[in-house]
Amino acid sequence: MSFVERVRAQADRCGHERSYTFVEDRRGELTESRLTFAEIDTRARSTGAWLAGRRAADQTALLLYPAGLEFLTAFLGCLYSRVIAVPSPLPQTDPRALERAEGIIKDADVRFVLTDSANQAMLTRWLRDVGLDGAVECVATDTLDLPGPDEWAMPEIGPDTLAYMQYTSGSTSEPRGVMLTHANLLHNEEEIWRAIGSPEEGVGVGWLPHYHDMGLIGMLLQPIYAGGDLYFASPIAFVMRPALWMEMISRYRAGYTVAPNFAYEWCAGRVTDGQVAGLDLSSLRFALNGAEPVRTGTLRAMTGRFGAAGFSEKAWAPAYGMAEATLVVTATPLGHGPLIRRFDTGALERHEAVPAPDGVELVGCGRPISMTVRIVDPETHAVLPDGSVAEIWVRGASVARGYWQRAEASRDAFGGRTADGDGPFLRTGDLGFMLDGELYVTGRSKDVVIVNGRNLYPQDLEEAAREAHPSLGAAAAFGVEAGGEHVVLVQEVRRQRLGGASAGEVARLVQGELARLFGLPSMSVVLVERGGVGKTTSGKVQRSRTRDLLLGGSLPVVHAELTAAVAARAEQAGPGAPAAHAVPAAHAVPAAQAVPAARAVAEAVAEGA
């Protein structure tokens, strides 16, 4: 079976009884645009017939759409015509979007750019400016004179047919095109459907970007796979008024929603008492939280903020996944709620998970539904027992075919074999452990900082630093080699929230707090303007990129407290690098070059913009 056959079967079964509704917030008044399953299928067949007429089968098409229904019908139209869809953001949600799109066009041999009439002229000019107008055709699908749906004929599509490509966000490397087949798509939607209780009908609410795996697979395509209704808004509308998300859950009696941790944190901190008072969230039974570390503080903040409105702790469903596995690898089943346990910090630094009543809290990311998950020593490839922290390896029908035109990278990532020859496995590059059937994720293997034999997880340092003072926002912790590994924390600061403290006092406060919590008496703290911490379009911290900007003298530095070794290393970067002053000397370092902040929607949320 193909995903097209599944969609067509659901359109036949549900017809005009199930629908997608795009919700727009106009000064607090919600307006709706709606397409039923039958109408979506009709539009997809017409778009598919047009693409077939252009002999576009097996070609790649870059989809550059704002949030809304037009993207959905265009994406399905590509699947209906065996065109390889490549979703990507527009500049209004990511200022680097066109640079990213140019790279994708060249990497993926894109023939068509599909968009809407509101963006066609801008994109046509851009293609001309970068010299791609002769090779790539820009088409506004909402104004095409499309053939009738009956002119569409089902092409030869099987489970192994390439359906679309999801370009990775590039948090630790250059973005790569993950090749997803119809079988991958069907299997992962089945995994999600089983996690939410296998409903025959239901209502979902969301706002996630459709060009990311969680937004596309977890939010946009799940309803038509399962046979439920979806009400969704744009990411920009959510950022501008986060109460909209909760209002939609209340108004449409949603049973499930999906989002990364930072979105729940943003919502808990920004929705006012008056807005909470009018909500009824008792219908919500499944709130998937994934795509980044799930924080206990966020879970408690949301429950505390919205508990009186009916938000139940049991609704929490932490999960783990990645684009290379389509989306979901492990998930918390409906009604189970989060599993939070404490583990000895020192043992975790030795890559062992030892429960301890006064240890650090970790949130479980659920259990495999049908995928195989192993914890494997990345050097010896030995499969390790419960409680051992090592690389997470994954096998199952959701695992992608590989990376587009990157044979060596595909072999490295998708061809993992254990010491006893079992495989192939997807090597995720993430570190974690299994305990009592639950997966706990501790970090990225490339991001772990090793100091004097200790393994420090950067997200733990970053979270602790943010709690040190209310002026602090996003952070990136990493190691710098300077006669040994030295810990550096680049921390965004909002000057208007400093109160009576100076930037230097706050930097030293962070140093003291991390020294107390992690035993780090010698570390560097660099305070930067908002946007100084590099992030992907999905809000993931780009630690290696932030490190490169720091050493290259291109961060918008407000104040730096540097160890002598790191200061000497920074001086080697030449003009513009942070001034070489050793701790404890306090000094303010002017920014030599302000780095334009990427204002992706998820990043704006994480920054508290």
How do the strands and helices of this protein lay out in sequence?
Elements: H1 3-14, E1 19-26, E2 29-36, H2 37-53, E3 60-64, H3 69-80, E4 84-88, H4 97-108, E5 110-115, H5 117-129, E6 137-140, E7 162-167, E8 177-181, H6 182-195, E9 203-206, H7 213-226, E10 229-232, H8 235-240, H9 243-252, E11 256-260, H10 261-270, H11 273-277, E12 286-290, H12 296-306, E13 316-321, E14 328-331, E15 340-343, H13 345-349, E16 360-363, E17 367-368, E18 372-376, E19 390-395, E20 402-403, H14 407-414, E21 426-435, E22 438-444, E23 449-451, E24 454-456, H15 458-466, E25 472-481, E26 485-493, H16 503-518, E27 524-528, H17 543-551, E28 557-561, H18 564-571, H19 601-607
Describe this structure in words.
- With 609 residues, this protein is α/β, with parallel strands linked by helices.
- Among the domains are: 321-444, Luciferase, Domain 3 (Luciferase, domain 3), CATH 2.30.38.10; 450-586, ANL, C-terminal domain (GMP Synthetase, Chain A, domain 3, 2-Layer Sandwich), CATH 3.30.300.
- Helix content is 33%, strand content 25%.
- The protein has 19 helices and 28 strands.
- A nine-stranded mixed beta sheet has the order 2-1-10-9-11-12-13-14-17, with helices on both faces.
- β9 (203-206), α7 and β10 form a beta-alpha-beta unit.
- α6 packs across α7.
- The longest helix is centred in the N-terminal third of the chain and has 17 residues, at 37-53.
- It starts with a helix and ends with a helix.
- The relative contact order is 0.08.
- The model is unreliable at 579-609 (pLDDT under 50).
